[in-house]
Fold this sequence. Notes:
This protein is α+β, with helices and mostly antiparallel strands.
Amino acid sequence: MERDIYDEDHEAFRDVVKEFVKRYVTNEAREKWDADGEVDRATMLAAGESGIIGLSVPEEFGGAGMLQDYRFRAIVNEEVIRAGAGSLAGAFGIQDDLAIPYIVHMGTQAQKEKWLPRMATGEVLGALAMTEPGAGSDLRGIKTTAKKVDGGYIVNGAKTFISSGKTADIVVTFVKTGEGNRPDAFSILIVENGMEGFDHGKKLHKMGFQGHDTAELSFTDVFVPEENLISGEEGRGFIQLMMNLPLERMSIGVAAAAASQAALEWTVAYTKDREAFGERIIDFQNTRFQLASIAADVEALWAYTDRALLAYKDKKLSAEDAAMYKFWATEREWEILDIGVQLHGGYGYITEYPIARAFLDARVHRIYGGTNEIMRDIVSRQIAGKR
Ligand SMILES: Cc1cc2nc3c(=O)[nH]c(=O)nc-3n(C[C@H](O)[C@H](O)[C@H](O)COP(=O)(O)OP(=O)(O)OC[C@H]3O[C@@H](n4cnc5c(N)ncnc54)[C@H](O)[C@@H]3O)c2cc1C
C-alpha cells in the first residue's frame, strides 16, 4: 500500500538524499568505511553540506529546524540503507538521534551556540556514552564519577560500546555526581576531545556495522568545566536520559523498517535473476510464498512505523509506546532478513551482498538502545500497572 505520511517537502528532501547517495555512497566508499572501521570525515562534512545531518538543529543555529518531524530522518534511513550502507546510516543516527538532541532539547544557550552550528555541518561529531563495562541495562549501576571542584568536575571511569566513540569530537557522557543510585545522583557532561586524561581507547571489532566505529572510552582525572554540564543543572542526568530514550528507540525501529524494505527489494531482484533447475528462483512456489509473507510483514512494519512517526511529531509517543515499537520492529526485521538471506542461498552469507551485511547489522538492533528484554519489561510494567 502506498504510504501517505510524506508531503511534497519530504519528497523533495528525498531527492536531495538520493543525489547524495548517488554521489557519495559508492561501493568503493563503502568498502573503505568497512576496511577502516569508520566513516571518513569528508563524507560527514558532505552530508552536512547537503543538509542531511543536523536535521533537528534549529534554523538559527544552521540546521533544518525539524525538531519533532522525524519523517526527514526516516527518509535518510530509507535511502542510505537501501544503498547497502547501514554503517553510514548508523553514523548519521548517532549524530542526529543521540548526540544533537541532548544539546537541542536540554543544552544551555551557550552550549547551543558553541556546538550546534558545527554539529549541523559535520565539523563537530558527537557520541553518547552511557554504557560501562559493568553496567548497560542497569544504567543506575554506572561507576563513572564526576566530582565537583572549583569551576567544574573531575571525571574518572570508563565507558564501552560507544558508537562513533573513536571519531567523535565531543561525547555526551552520563556520570554520577551524587551518592547511591537515586535518579538525582546522575548528571550529563559534554567531554571534549583533547581534554587531558580523556582517552578514546580501543576500537571494538563487531559482527556488523563494520564501517561504523564503536569504542571504549576512559577518563582519568579529566577536568570538565561546569559550562559543559548539560542544561547547567546537576542531578538531572537520569531524567534527561529518560527524555531522549523514546527518540533513540523509535530511531532503531525506523532503521529496522528501512532495512526490511531494502531486504525485500534485494531479495525480489536476486530471485528474479538467479536460476536453478532451469527456472528462476522466484518461480518456485516456496520462494513466492516466502516473499508474500515478508511483503506482508514489511507492510505491517510501515503501518506501525508511520504511526510512531506521527505520534512522535505530535509529542504523543510515550516511553512505553517507543519500547513496544522498538522490540516489535526489530524482531520483524530479524525474521525478514533471515528469509532474505535464505533465498539468496550461499551468496546471502557473503558480505559483498547487502543482504548479508544488513543481516549482521540487524542483530544489534535487538540489543542496543535498551535490549528487547528491557523493552518488554517497560511495556509489561505498564500493562501490569507497575511503574
Ligand atoms: C554495536 C553496539 C553499539 C552500542 N552503542 C552504544 C552507544 O553509542 N552508547 C551507549 O551508551 N551504549 C551503546 N551500546 C550499549 C548497549 O546499549 C548495551 O549493550 C545494552 O543496553 C545492553 O547492556 P549490556 O551489554 O550491559 O547487557 P546486560 O545489561 O549485561 O544484559 C545481558 C542480558 O541480560 C538481560 N537482562 C538485563 N537486565 C534484565 C532484566 N531486568 N530483565 C530481563 N533480562 C535482563 C539483557 O536483556 C541481556 O539479554 C552499544 C552496544 C553495541 C553492541
